[in-house]
Amino acid sequence: MQKLLWSVIFVFIAFFTYGQGNVTLSGNLKDEETGEDLIGARVVVAELPGVGALTNDYGFYSLSIAPGTYTVTIKSLGYESVTLEMDLSTDKTYDLEMTVEGKVFGTVTVTGEKLDENITSAEMGVDKINMKDIENIPVLFGEKDILKTLQLLPGVKSAGEGSAGFFVRGGSADQNLILLDEAPVYNASHLLGFFSVFNSDALKDVKLYKGGAPAEFGGRLSSVMDIKMKEGNSKRLSVSGGLGLISSKLTIEAPIVKDKGSFIVSARRTYADIFLRLSKDERAQNSILYFYDLNAKANYRLGKKDRIFLSGYFGRDNFGFADQFGFDWGNATGTFRWNHLYGDRLFGNTSVIFSNYNYKIKFGAGEETFQIGSEIQDINIKEDFDFFINSKNTMSFGGNIIHHTFRPGEIETGSDIGFTLNDIENRYSLESAAYISNEQKIKKRWKVVYGLRYSNFTQIGPGNIFSYDLAGNVTDTTAFDDWEPVSSYHGLSPRLSTNFSIDEKSSLKASYARTYQYIHLVSNSTASSPTDIWVPSSNNIEPQVADQVSVGYFRNFYDNMLEFSVEIYYKDMRRVIDYRDGAEVTLNPAVEGELLYGIGRAYGLELLLKKRRGKFTGWVSYTLSRSERKFDDINDGAWYAARQDRTHDISIVGMYNFTDRITASATWVYYTGNAVTFPSGKYSIDGQIVNLYSERNGYRMPDYHRLDLGVTLDNKKFKTVLDAESGKEVQVEKRFESSWNFSVYNAYGRENAYSISFQENAETGQTEAVQLALFKIIPSISYNFKF
Amino acid sequence: MNRLVLQFAAIASLAFSFSCEKVIDIPLNEADQAIVVEAVGRNFVGESFIVLSKTGSVYDDSGFETLTDAAVTVTDQDGIATIFNHDPLNPGRYIAPTFAATPNSAYDLNIVTDDLTFSASSTTNSIPELDSLNYILVPPGFGSKDTTFLLFYNFVDNVAETNFYRIKAWANGKADNNYYIGDDVLGNGQATSAPIFGTEIKSKDTVHIELLSMDEDTYTYLSTLNSNINSGPFGATPANPVTNIDNAIGYFGVYMVDTMSIIMP
User: Fold this and answer.
1) What would you report as the CA-atom Rg of chain A, rounded to the nearest whole angstrom?
2) Is residue B173 part of a domain?
3) Which has fewest Cβ within 10 Å: A345, A477, B49, B165?
4) Is B91 in CB contact (< 8 Å) with chain A?
């Protein structure tokens, strides 16, 4: 199968390359000030309307056209455009460092460039976040967070109050593939979900594919979040940092060799534990509660054709009580990449990727200890090519192979504990994929991206593999040797997205994607927890499969100042996973017997109206949707609302630039309460009052709404100095920039229900519905600096 | 285990945060009234009982209806039937003053009411043996102003059997409501030493410990019952406990029990 795919790739290449007497213009685009690569910058030719090239993830572009003299314009969002006459009689390399727009003293950003990317690109179902918006949008405890900002866009829903977890288009939280410099991050939240593991100071670009992801991506049903770390300033040493209410952070970036290589190191740590010590409550005083994370990346250009990158992330949460109890968890990822230019039209990248997530729980002190650990670890080798065939076709192809190790439960006991317990056996598997995708301009107004992804998943030995009966009891055990295949699955995922421009202001788009998910998160709790474990597809668990179709209409108004889009989608999911009632998922060797398999469907309408320029910017997003599941053993096999089913979801985000030093912002969110299971009766047994449930997710939590406000005050960006030559006063940009950010979370103090429990009043004995609200008004302040 | 850790985490993080609780009004649907069976066999004479009651409305606190005129029998593997008679002093409770369950046996429960019949079965292993109780001193400051004790129970699992255990504890006659339950899947034949952490034990307290062994169905019932009771924000999706009785709510479990008491210094 893989051989067949590779043959197809080469036939494609031969086909597209055939008979061309073109010249190629290629090069790298960078930011003038920091030397960061510019992703998605455009190179267009005035004489050839509709012909152009985009830079790839590494800032490289390549454009093949007939020889001649052309007017070439290079533009990128937020940068001054550059237009030049070029004699392209032979192949030419042109690198450019672009200037951030609006760097004119004392003025607010104005640009004459047409920002119609949303109309012309074939991409749909994609949410992008401007890293600048993240700085201004108010968030819980003032801890800016890309995952929380993304939740304000249509189709993306928060997993709960203050949560960094999210659901995309009715999928569950584990159906999101979160990639940090290509490495999967298996648990993307700190502190029981209130903060994401991503320190936004270290990030360069974030893109969320809600559907119709390119064939390059696969492995999860619902979405792909592609996060790229900054490369680091290759021009000069730059330091930035922030002091916040709950955490502080520091980022250092500098050239290794100027314009050839650079590095960035960014660290963050919370200090909630310091406040805990000030508490009067002794329990709180003895509690340990903090997290930290570290991002580091370095790159070096070996020559004109070669460049290497090394990036890594390490983060950890620590939680404990005196020396009696300890609980820590975290991710570690590492990515080594080598870019190589094979000629001026074929760009290749080789990556070696490592990812690990683990948790450890320790009871007791000294030698009287008992420790439980669990882990998932990946080693991934990946090869990707971008082939800039001609001005009408850009092809991507490649493949990868991942070795997964699953350690569901390792138990260690101290020497004085007096007993030992057996570990739960590890599981191993290989996940491989090959893909080919082409972006083709068929007519001036019609663009299509089509691709095919083949994936294979093989569970391998060593191990004693169980078989189960329908009730989930172990019926048989078979021993397998090292690397011996236990079970294997494969699938073909076609991907298609197309854009038809009706005119310069509007376009119609459509997409289709099939996705396979071979590893599954087993979580028995309604909130995401650090102890959730990943399990591979196996002789018992088949992969999850989904098909999604979506269509959309995109229109810009007032010279692209206003963007409007409407998308509708339908997603069909098969072999989705739920659990038997009361399933035990921690330290259970037969955890596969606790799973149930069903089907799901999700559909919805997403509206987005966005104002991109001017003193006032922001957006309104609205989602109308359904997400349902069907399992033979739940609710008598009838369709029921998934937990994340929310009928209405509204976000309003507004930012206003009073002057170039003061920005105010406000967000308001409203959504229908989650589907939830409440009792419909009660009884007494074993000395306890027990709730009687008759229907899964038959009720709704109360509607949720919240207003957040924020103000950012920038200190003076310019200073006045006497120009030595002219003797006149001139304004010079200050090297040291700083800003204060004040925000209020939940400004009108709405008590939004985090949970509702039915319990007896200790005094009256009356059963009551008790609502727990987590955060009322939370003000916060932070100070950020950069030099 | 999972739940314990998360509750602990939730308590400490919420203690520091800004949460607030209030009673709200939530209209609930009414489930059809069903019969609840709590059938408990024990290896001590006269300690076995069956309680028959009915489910009630969530917001109704007038108590639960009981069934007082059912015919209740427990039959062992040799076909010997014991009739459990209704105890007028405790409405809904059926007792057999001479009955004691025996190790390595099988029992069938049969209940006949006016219009319904319920049946269930349960098996027993050997009688477990509590080896000892020991304690460590917890100095003041760890959650209490006084010196307290962390009491450990110790026993050795029978390697020849697949065992399921529950520990029950009473301090000065007051029951600890935590479900200390476990199986021997990961520690077959091992010695176990674990603390009673749910009750604050002080000097001069009398603590009574029971070690109960049960079959897998009873264990499943108790562990799913525990999830039902603890289904909070970090708990499992709420669900009814997994019963071993046809057509009813509740369970039939025959326990082999060992007991031990200690008076703290």
Assistant:
1) 27
2) yes
3) A477
4) no
- Span B206-211, mean pLDDT? 94
User: Do B163 and B215 belong together in one domain?
Assistant: yes
- C-alpha distances (whole Å) from A474 to each of A37, A590, A591 are 54, 7, 10
**pLDDT band at residue B177, thresholds of 50, 70 and 90?**
confident
Does A585 reach chain B within 8 Å, measured CB to CB? yes
Residues B190-212 as b or e (16 or more Cβ within 10 Å = b): bebbbbbbebbbeeebebebbbb
Q: Which residues on chain A are in Cβ contact (under 8 Å) with B60?
A: 767
Supply the pLDDT for residue A6: 53
Task: Check whether residue B145 and residue B54 sit in a common domain.
Answer: no
Q: Structural domain of residue B88, as residue ranges? A: 35-123
Closest CA to A438 of A400, A500, A393, A398: A393
* Minimal Cβ distance to A325: which of B8, B187, B220: B8
**Touching B: A residues 606-645, CB under 8 Å:** 643
**B189 at interface of A, judged by CB pairs closer than 8 A:** no
How far A253 CA sits from the closest chain B CA (Å)? 34
pLDDT at A107: 32
Please check whether residue B244 lies inside any domain of the structure.
Answer: no
Q: Does residue B114 sit in the same domain as residue B139? A: no
Question: Of A179, A177, A178, A182, nearest to A337 (Cα)?
Answer: A182
Q: In which band, very low, low, confident or very high, does the pLDDT at B2 lie, cut at 50, 70 and 90?
A: very low
Residue B110 lies in a domain: yes
Averaged pLDDT in 10-residue chunks for chain A of 787 residues: 51 48 87 85 84 86 89 85 88 88 41 57 73 76 83 87 84 91 90 82 89 90 92 90 88 90 92 68 71 93 91 91 81 95 91 94 76 91 92 92 91 67 86 95 88 95 87 85 93 93 90 95 70 88 94 89 93 90 74 89 95 88 95 90 92 90 92 91 91 90 92 82 76 83 90 86 86 84 89
DSSP B166: E
- The verdict on B134 and B113 lying in the same domain is no
The string of DSSP letters for A17-71 reads HTT---EEEEEEEEETTT-PBPTT-EEEETTSTT-EEE--TTSEEEEEE-SEEEE
| Amino acid B61: pLDDT | 84
Structure tokens at A395: 């092809």
State the smallest CA–CA distance between residue B241 and chain A in angstroms. 7
**B143: which DSSP letter?**
S
Q: Are B88 and B106 in a shared domain?
A: yes
Q: How far is CA A344 from the centre of its chain?
A: 32
Q: Is the peptide bond before A494 cis (omega within 30 degrees of 0)?
A: no
Answer whether A276 sits within 8 Å of B16, measured CB to CB. yes
Only one residue has tokens 């609205």, namely A622
User: What pLDDT shows up at residue A349?
Assistant: 95
* Residue B95 and residue B165 in one domain: no
Which domains are present in chain A? 2-114 (2.60.40.1120), 225-710 (2.40.170.20)
Lookup: tokens for A54 = 């985009």
Tell me if the pTM is above 0.95.
Answer: no
What is the SS3 assignment for A243? strand
Please tell me whether residues B231 and B135 are part of one structural domain: yes
Total number of domains in chain B: 2
A94 neighbors A29 (Cβ within 8 angstroms): no
The answer as to whether B196 is a domain residue is yes
The reply to whether residue B225 touches residue A758, judged by beta carbons under 8 angstroms, is no
Q: Backbone phi, then psi, for A274, in 5-degree steps? A: -70, -40
Residues B224 and B167 in one domain: yes
- By the 8 A CB rule, do A383 and A398 touch? yes
Count CA atoms within 13 Å of residue A306 on its CB side.
Answer: 5
Q: What is the pLDDT of residues A430-483, one digit of tens each?
A: 999 999 999 998 888 889 999 999 999 999 989 888 888 887 788 888 999 999
Tell me, yes or no, if B89 comes closer than 8 A to chain A by beta carbon. Answer: no
